[in-house]
């Protein structure tokens, strides 16, 4: 067993230790999840069960070097099945049983003693040893309710013993090698010698007695200022104090969310929900469960991914529950979350319909913030479905309606970011920037994006910043600013890895692969892109799928890996036919044209058709930036065929539409090409 935060810590160790002269030794159970995976830096050693020879050495160590009867030694070896701990504990149990006589050099079975019974299991052996320690056993049982580790002070607060009596009892447990003492009472800390020793003590308690002890522990911990909420929640749960346990699980989740430790927050919230579902169906408890489901969805957004089935399920359950609560206060938040999940699953026409419904709901709402959020959602859906002109209108209505948002105190903006997983004002500005870029207003778009990224850095809310870095990377990639895209995507990956945000690690990897392809490093781009695909599949994120596969097909083809490239080209074509993510379709089509040109055979007609399709799609969107990219590729094909006049007449009117963005790499390339054409 390992908690989520410790699991993240070991992954951080693995990353850091790969580059420094250090070694870490870790034990793990064979049935558990591998601690460090199967990287080349890991050497995994299997510890096999001990044979009779080695078991005899273990037994001799416990028996202080004195021999045991051969028949007893063989029975111990057989029953312990080569497990060292079991051999030690079974030997101790035999020595403490009174069934052996000690001589100068051996333990022997006395003539008048009954035949010794060897416990059948480790649990039996440990239980027998505890039974022989009455009345100290009760102290061990009480300590076991605290956990494998326990402090003298906390134990003293819940056992009905004087301090000296407790010291003596713990001393006996230490002498019996059942617990290990660190320090001296009253500041001592104790550890059960093995988790199984603790389990044996704990499981020997009647359920009612366990609940009573956990109840005393809950009361004692509540009187301590530094008690961990999750610890209180655990003991309250075990004590059957359900309502109190729910409150502490919620507090533990809120604290984990703020760190942020999203995976731990999810675990705590799932505990709270499990208990809350056992409560009555009163309006109060329905509202509490609704709040928990919302919190679960908000923790799942950055951790599992917006489109992940678990994220969607949390908000869907919240939506169903909200319908049973008159005037549920979170209904709009739920609708927004469902819109986001639908958007990131790539179901853009469906997301657009949800956004339109949100605008209709907000129109009859007294909360003006709901209309702003609805208009922003509508604008983003309009942009991604290929209507940038309409999107600009919606953005202006929503984004510019609330300039005072940026003047809010920092803590209010962070609270808003927690509610929506990322600060919505900042997030919206990146999509607004992409809309302006699409319409050819390159410099305006660049200013919007750079200011949004600066605001995200200043806000210092982790998920908002990772969201901002990824979207700034998208802008740099689409603008073909290779070095900027490489830097921003690398920073995205770094933050995502550190905070275990798999969806953003996927996006960061894919964008990093784009950047490397732009600078001509195709060989390095391939494994990074494929790593990105793994993360996107794991988080069930299907946004921007066609362009990712179209680029990968082109990159593989540029390396002569045509058989590997073909399936990716096919995925891109299929998505173009069936998908509703029209914003990126012109560039996706253009990349497929590049792929066709790289493949062996007479593929120029196919490439030209792809470029023409990209040009038509750009014009349909009224996007002069996409028109420029497609026209530049098509003009080069015509020029190669000797059609210089046609190439010039295609390209010149498009470049003439630009009134800004003259430093855009594609614009500079087009201007230079026009000079060559004369």
Envelope shape: elongated
Output the radius of gyration.
33 Å
Q: Poorly predicted ranges (pLDDT <50, ≥5 residues)?
A: none
Tell me, rounded to a whole number, the average pLDDT. 86
The number of distinct β-strands equals 5
**What is the topology, as strand order, of the major beta sheet?**
3-5-4
Distance between the termini: 71 Å
Can you give a write-up of this model?
The protein is an all-alpha fold and 678 residues long. Helices cover 69% and strands 2% of the residues. It contains 33 helices and 5 strands. The strands form 2 sheets. A 3-stranded antiparallel beta sheet has the order 3-5-4. Strand 4 and strand 5 (189-192) form a beta hairpin. Helix 10 (207-222) runs antiparallel to helix 11 (229-238) and helix 16 runs antiparallel to helix 17 (348-363). The longest helix is centred in the middle third of the chain and has 22 residues, at 283-304. It is elongated and about 110 Å long. It starts with a helix and ends with a helix. The mean pLDDT is 86.
């Amino acid at each position: 067993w390992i908690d989520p935060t410790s699991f993240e810590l070991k992954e951080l160790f693995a990353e850091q230790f790969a580059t420094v002269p250090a070694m870490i030794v870790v034990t793990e159970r064979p049935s558990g999840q591998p601690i460090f995976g199967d990287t080349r830096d890991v050497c995994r050693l299997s510890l096999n069960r001990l044979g009779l020879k080695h078991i005899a050495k273990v037994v001799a160590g416990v028996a202080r070097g004195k021999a045991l009867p051969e028949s007893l030694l063989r029975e111990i070896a057989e029953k312990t099945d080569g497990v060292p701990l079991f051999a030690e504990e079974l030997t101790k149990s035999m020595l403490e049983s009174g069934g052996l006589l000690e001589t100068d050099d051996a333990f022997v079975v006395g003539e008048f003693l009954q035949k010794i019974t060897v416990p059948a299991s480790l649990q039996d052996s440990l239980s027998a040893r505890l039974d022989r320690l009455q009345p100290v056993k009760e102290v061990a049982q009480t300590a076991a309710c605290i956990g494998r580790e326990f402090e003298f002070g906390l134990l003293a607060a819940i056992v009905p013993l004087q301090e000296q009596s407790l010291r003596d009892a713990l001393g006996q447990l230490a002498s019996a090698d059942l617990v290990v003492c660190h320090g001296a009472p009253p500041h001592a800390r104790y550890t059960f010698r093995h988790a199984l020793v603790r389990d044996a003590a704990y499981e020997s308690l009647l359920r009612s007695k366990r609940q009573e002890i956990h109840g005393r522990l809950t009361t004692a911990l509540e009187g301590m200022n530094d008690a961990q909420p999750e610890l209180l929640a655990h003991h309250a749960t075990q004590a059957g104090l359900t309502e109190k346990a729910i409150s502490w699980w919620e507090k533990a989740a809120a604290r984990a969310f703020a760190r942020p430790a999203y995976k731990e927050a999810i675990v705590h919230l799932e505990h709270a929900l499990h208990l809350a579902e056992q409560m009555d169906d009163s309006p109060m408890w329905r509202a509490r469960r609704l709040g928990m489901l919302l919190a679960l969805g908000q923790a799942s957004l950055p951790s599992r991914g917006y489109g992940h089935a678990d994220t969607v399920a949390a908000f869907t359950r919240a939506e169903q529950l909200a319908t049973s609560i008159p005037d549920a206060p979170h209904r709009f938040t739920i609708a927004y979350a469902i819109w986001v999940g639908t958007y990131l699953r790539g179901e853009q026409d469906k997301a657009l319909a949800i956004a339109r419904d949100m605008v209709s709901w907000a129109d009859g709402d007294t909360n003006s913030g709901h209309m702003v959020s609805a208009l922003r959602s509508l604008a983003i859906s309009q942009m991604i479905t290929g209507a940038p002109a309409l999107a600009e209108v919606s953005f202006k209505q929503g984004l510019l309606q609330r300039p005072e948002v940026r003047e809010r105190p920092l803590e209010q903006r962070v609270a808003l970011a927690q509610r929506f997983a990322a600060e919505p004002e900042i997030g919206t500005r990146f999509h607004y920037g992409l809309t302006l870029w699409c319409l050819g207003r390159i410099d305006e778009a660049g200013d919007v994006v750079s200011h949004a990224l600066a605001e995200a850095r200043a806000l210092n809310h982790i998920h908002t910043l990772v969201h901002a870095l990824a979207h700034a990377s998208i802008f740099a990639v689409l603008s073909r600013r290779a070095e900027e895209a490489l830097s921003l995507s690398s920073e995205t990956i770094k933050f995502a890895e550190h905070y275990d945000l798999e969806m953003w690690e996927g996006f960061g990897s894919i964008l990093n692969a784009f950047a490397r392809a732009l600078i001509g490093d195709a060989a390095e781009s391939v494994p990074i892109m494929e790593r990105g695909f793994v993360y996107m599949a794991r988080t069930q994120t299907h946004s921007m799928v066609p362009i990712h596969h179209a680029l990968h097909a082109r990159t593989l083809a540029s390396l002569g890996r045509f058989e590997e490239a073909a399936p990716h080209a096919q995925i891109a074509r299929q998505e173009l036919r069936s998908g509703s993510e029209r914003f990126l379709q012109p560039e996706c089509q253009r990349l497929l044209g590049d792929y066709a040109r790289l493949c062996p055979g007479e593929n120029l007609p196919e490439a030209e058709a792809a470029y023409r399709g990209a040009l038509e799609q750009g014009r349909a969107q009224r996007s002069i930036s996409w028109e420029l990219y497609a026209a530049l590729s098509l003009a080069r094909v015509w020029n190669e065929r000797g059609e210089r006049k046609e190439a010039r007449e295609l390209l010149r009117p498009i470049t003439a539409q630009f009134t800004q963005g003259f430093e855009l790499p594609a614009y500079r390339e087009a201007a230079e090409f026009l000079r060559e054409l004369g």
